[in-house]
Structure formats: structure tokens, C-alpha cells
Amino acid sequence: MPERLRRSSQSPIRWVTTEIRVRYAETDQMGVAYYSNYLVWFEVGRSEVCRDCGFSYAEMEARTQAYLAVAEARCRYHSPALYDEVLEIRTAVESLRKRTLNFRYEIIKKNSGVLVATGSTTHIVLDRNGRPKTLPEEYASLLKSSA
Amino acid sequence: MPERLRRSSQSPIRWVTTEIRVRYAETDQMGVAYYSNYLVWFEVGRSEVCRDCGFSYAEMEARTQAYLAVAEARCRYHSPALYDEVLEIRTAVESLRKRTLNFRYEIIKKNSGVLVATGSTTHIVLDRNGRPKTLPEEYASLLKSSA
Amino acid sequence: MPERLRRSSQSPIRWVTTEIRVRYAETDQMGVAYYSNYLVWFEVGRSEVCRDCGFSYAEMEARTQAYLAVAEARCRYHSPALYDEVLEIRTAVESLRKRTLNFRYEIIKKNSGVLVATGSTTHIVLDRNGRPKTLPEEYASLLKSSA
Amino acid sequence: MPERLRRSSQSPIRWVTTEIRVRYAETDQMGVAYYSNYLVWFEVGRSEVCRDCGFSYAEMEARTQAYLAVAEARCRYHSPALYDEVLEIRTAVESLRKRTLNFRYEIIKKNSGVLVATGSTTHIVLDRNGRPKTLPEEYASLLKSSA
User: Fold this and answer.
1) What gap in Å lies between CA B141 and CA B138, rounded to an integer?
2) Cβ contact, residue pair A29, B25, below 8 Å
3) Which of A78, A120, A123, D9 is most buried (most C-beta within 10 Å)?
């Protein structure tokens, strides 16, 4: 088993798609979705990747006491998301090591295909007490099937 | 010790006051603070009551595994709160029994004194597993000093 | 046209149902969905009622400059909602007058049918400047078809 | 007037500091502040920079119809922020051009001085209709006094 998995030109990225509808609560007085919500939507995308790989992130946390803490997050805002619009959240595992994981994201307006945002997050696997831990093998394998 | 403490006409309510400033994140496209944020501000008020009574809610949770789960919440919206306004959150323990607690709230614009909202919450004391529990005596006594 | 529409024993309430999945962002350190999110979910339900009645709340706001400001909100929390659970949000127009609207809500776990919460909101129709306004007739008629 | 202002080794960065207390609403079931809240705290820091420069961001929006839309946001999470902790949000204008602005942030635990997060945001000045606009000269000058 390779210690590390990383995108190469040979292995095209595998996107998992889910949808959300922009809530009124998520808008601000500029009339568009407030910028921190995009990180919430990224998380909705990550949950969907887990589900797509055959497990629930909730169950992984509860069974193995492994937590994917966020070490870094980036978002580029291309076009504003408006209330009631349906957005496609496309998420991919970009790289997967023993103790770190990288996800990539694209958010697109479902009706028009307009690009709303792109982003990435880096995660470290931690135990209940906040100490680094190895991603449980069972879940690492499942995520690799997606990556 | 009486099993139950409740407001009477003889004991005027004792308000604990704290301040928050409305965040851009809390506004919506109507140009005012979104209605669910008021419940967050109520919680800021409850934390302040604990601090005012000489303890930290965080510490109570950690030390005694007692959680104040919300059983009911009500809010009346009198005047909209705007971005960047400083609001006074006035919170009072309205009643305190062995396993339930009631808080009352008033939110007021600091500059003008205009009433923004009034509300109440009812809480049940639960243990880590969601089972009803008696409020630890030490903390019940401290809260009674406020009520 | 009657000035006011209100539930009677003869007219059973008409629920409109939509679904949300609890986000990690919506949980708190008690391990359950934080209590203010329920008001956000109620709003998701209201948007669905509009859609079900044949219009978009966004479009009503934009076209008629009529806003449904919340005057009062109540929520009773029956059973905690957990991360990743799918919840059914059932929403109904409870009453509809010229300038006020009442909604009722029930939130249920989709898998088990367990009741999570019940609630209600009262809304006043306002114009762009926060002055009371009559609900535009076209939208009042559409909502009456739901009530 | 130079078209562009940028940090140089000669001009040390000028931090503006404000404080927030972590709310229960901001925690998640991992027991720490959820990662999207840091972007909200960054915004609290930006508002403080405006205030420190002698104007209110709210007033700038209302008077000039200029909006600072976020084009990019980055955050590195160094140490988790816990419920009820007081955090210092240190914010600085990193660069200021006619139509774009960059802010830098550091978040620190007030009691211990532990570094919680660092980050940056890039903003584009837009008008009410989302079209690029020049930052009104009056406000550009005030911000330059801070940068």
C-alpha cells in the first residue's frame, strides 16, 4: 500500500455531487449568500463523499473516535449565490495520507452552470483528545475507492 | 430549601446585562438581523448569568456532565436589529426547580433604548446520555442567588 | 372574500413537506443540533409552502417589495436532532389575514417517525422601509389555496 | 497618490484588535468552534478596522452604495477555540488598491496568548448591482491611515 495517494495526470479527479438550496438565513444585507456559508456547504459535500464511499462520517466518529479536524480552508468566490437558488456541490478527495486528507470543491448553479466558488480544505486526523491519529484503515480504504 | 423558586410580586426580577454588536453575518437580505440569531443572543445572555453567579457554564458541563437542554423557546420581535448596532441582552432566571429552569430575556438597543425583542426559554437538566438529571446542588445554589 | 382565514374543525390542516439533512455545522458540543437552527429549518419549510403554492418567495420580495417579517416565533423541542439525520419539515399556513400570516411546523425524523419539534411563527407584511403593507392579492390567493 | 499601497519591510503592519467570546452556538459536536465561524470573526475584525479608521462600514454601504465583496478567503487553524474562551481578533489592512483590498488576521486566546488561527481575505469593491466600482476616495483615505 502506498503511503500516500495523490492526483496524477493519469487518474482524473472523481467528483461526488450533492445539492443544496440557498436559505434565507444564509443571505446577508448585500442580498447574496454570506461568505462563511460556503465552508458549511463544503462540509455538506464531504459528508456526501463519505456516504458515496459507503460509510457515514457520523458513524466513523462514533465507532473509531477519529475526527477530521480542519487545518486549512480556502475559498475563491466567483459569482454570488442567491436565495432559493439550487447549487451543486462537487467534492473530491484530492489526496489521502495516513494522517492528513485534502478535499477540493466546486460549487455551480444548477440551472445555469455558472461557477459560484472553488475551494479546498486540509484535514488532520485527531482522536477525542485532540492528538494526531492514523485514519482507521477501514475508512482509509473506502475513501481511496473515491479518490 | 423550597423545592421551587418562582417570581412573586415581592421579589423583583434581577436582570443580568451583557452586550453584543450585530454582525454582518447575522443580517439577511431584508437588511435586518435574521430571526434565529435572537436565540443565539439569548444563549449569550444565559452564559452571562452563569458568570454573574460565579461559575462558568462550560465548567459546569465539564465537571458535572449536566447539560441544560432547551425544551421550549419563544421570541417576540418588536423592532428590527441592524448591522453594527450594539444591543443590550438582559437575562433573568425566572424560575428554578430541581430539573427545570426558565429564563426571560429582553433585548434593547443600547443607544436609543428601543425594545428589540422579548423572549423566554425553558430548560431541562440532562446527563451526557440525554436522561433527566437533577441540577447539581452547588450550581442550583449559585443560580438562586441570581433569581 | 372573507377578511380572514382560520383553521376550523371542518378544514383539516394542509401540510407541505420538505426534507433537510442535519449538518455538522448545526451541531453543538452537546452532540445535538443547536436550538436556533430549528428556526432556520422552519424558514426552509415556509419557502417550500410558497413553491408548493406556485410561486417563489424570492420573486414575491423582488416583484412586490413585500417582506414577511417575523413578529413571533415559538418552538418546542421534543427529541434531539442528530448530525446526518434526515428530517421532514412539515409546514402549514395556519391563518392568513390582510397583513398577518401564521405558520405551523412539525419536524419529524424521516427514518423513525420520531417527533423532533413543533412550532409556530407569526409574520407581518412590511414594505421595503419597514412599514406595514397588505399582502399582494395575487400571493394571498396562492397561499389561500394552501391554507 | 500612489495607485497602490502594499506592505514593505519599512512599514510594519498595523494591527487593530477586538475581542469576541466563543458562543455555544459556534461549537460543534467535536467540542470546538466550527471552522466556518472563523470567517465570521474575521468580519468582526474588519468592522473594527473601519471603526478604528473613523467610519462605520454600515454607513459607507448606505451612503456610497459601495460594497466590499469577498473574492477570496483563507484560514489556517492552529489551535482549537473552545466555548466561552475570549479571543483577540487582530486585523490589518495588508494592501489597498483602487478596487481591491486585502486584510490579514490573527486570532489569539486572550488568557494564554496561544495562536488559534491566521488568515486573509481579498475584497473587490462593487456597486449595488454587483459591478466593480472604485472605493470612494473619502473611505480609501481613512483606510490608508490604518494600513
Assistant:
1) 5
2) no
3) A123
For B:53-112, CB contacts with D below 8 A are 56-58, 82-84
Give D117 to chain C, closest Cα distance, Å.
Answer: 18
Q: Closest-CA residue in chain C for D26?
A: C28
For C85, the grid coordinates are 439525520
Give D41-90 pLDDT, tens digit per residue: 999 999 999 999 999 998 999 999 999 999 999 999 999 999 999 999 99
The Cα B72–Cα C82 span in angstroms is: 18
> For residue range A48-84, what is the model confidence (pLDDT) as tens digits?
999 999 999 989 999 999 999 999 999 999 999 999 9
pLDDT for A11 = 62
> Which residues constitute the domain of residue C56?
22-146
- Residue pLDDT, tens place only, A106-137: 999 999 999 999 999 999 999 988 899 999 99
C130 lies in some domain: yes
Contact B47 D24 (CB under 8 A): yes
How many domains does chain B contain in total? 1
B/e letters for C63-84, b = 16+ CB within 10 Å, e = fewer, are: eeebbbbbbbbbbbbeebbbbb
Q: Is residue D5 part of a domain?
A: no
- The angle that helices C137-146 and C37-52 make with each other, rounded to 10 degrees, is 100
Q: How many CB atoms lie within 10 A of CB C3?
A: 6
CA distance C90 to C120: 11
Output the pTM of the full model: 0.93
Residue owning grid cell 448553479: A109
D135 φψ region: left (φ > 0), alpha (ψ -120 to 50), beta (else): beta
Helix (H, G, I), strand (E, B) or coil at B24: helix
* Residue B147: predicted pLDDT: 67
Q: How confident is the model at residue D3 (pLDDT cuts 50, 70, 90)?
A: very low
Which residues of D have a catalytic role annotated? 28
Phi-psi label, residue D89: left if phi above 0, alpha if psi -120 to 50, beta otherwise: beta
Q: Is residue B89 part of a domain?
A: yes
DSSP A31: S
Return the CATH number at C83.
Answer: 3.10.129.10
Q: Are B125 and B132 in contact (CB under 8 A)?
A: yes
Residue of A nearest to C68 (CA): A24
Residue A44 and residue D44 in contact, taking contact as beta carbons nearer than 8 Å: no
Mutation for B interface: D29, D42, D47, D128, most B CBs within 10 A: D47
